Amino acid sequence: MLDYCKDQVLAARAASLKSDAVARLAATVVEGGADAVQAAWEASDAFREAWQAKARDVLARTAFKRQKLVARLKEAAHREEAEAAAVSAEARAAATASKKWEADREARVGTWRDFARGGGDKDMGGGRKKKRAGGAAAPAAGALPFGLSAPVASARPAGVAAVSAAVKPPPPKRARSGDD
Fold first, then answer.
1. Is 70 exceeded by the pLDDT of residue 129?
2. I need a labelling partner for 50 at 20 to 30 A (CA). Which of 33, 98, 114, 156 fits?
3. For 45-54, which contacts have Cβ atoms below 8 Å and span 24 or more sequence positions?
C-alpha cells in the first residue's frame, strides 16, 4: 500500500514538472542530472509529508469502502432473513388454512348431502317437497305447445295455402370437409 502511495506521489510530481522550465534547467545544471534532482527531492521533508498525506488519504478511502461494503452485506443478510421469515410465515399460514379446510370438510360435505337428499333447513325453504297428486295435465288434442293457438283457416287467402303446400324449399347444402 505504501509503495502504491509513493508511486502516486512521484507520478503527480512528474506531471507537475513536465511543464516547469526551472526544474528542467536545474536538472541540466546539477552534476547528476534529473536523477540527482529526483533523489534529492525524495530525501526532503516535502516528499515525506506528501507521501504521508497520500497514504492517509488512500487508507481512509479504503476504510470507507470497507465500511460501506460491510453495511451492504449486513443489509443484504437482514433482507434475506426477513424474506425467509416471510416465507416461513406464509407456509405456516397455508398449512393452518389447509388443516382448517380439511377440518371443516365434513360439515361442508354433510350440508351438501342434506341438500341433495332434499332435507335441509325448513326456515330457508328446504325440506322435502311434495309431489303433485295429478301430475302435469296433458295438452288437448290439436293444441299447440306453450299456450299458442292454432291459426284460423279464414285468415289466409284462398290460394296461399295451396301454393305453400306445393312449393317446398330446397334441402340444405352439406358442407364438404377438407375440400375448402
1. no
2. 33
3. 47/9, 50/9, 50/12, 50/13, 51/2, 51/5, 51/6, 51/9, 54/5, 54/8, 54/9
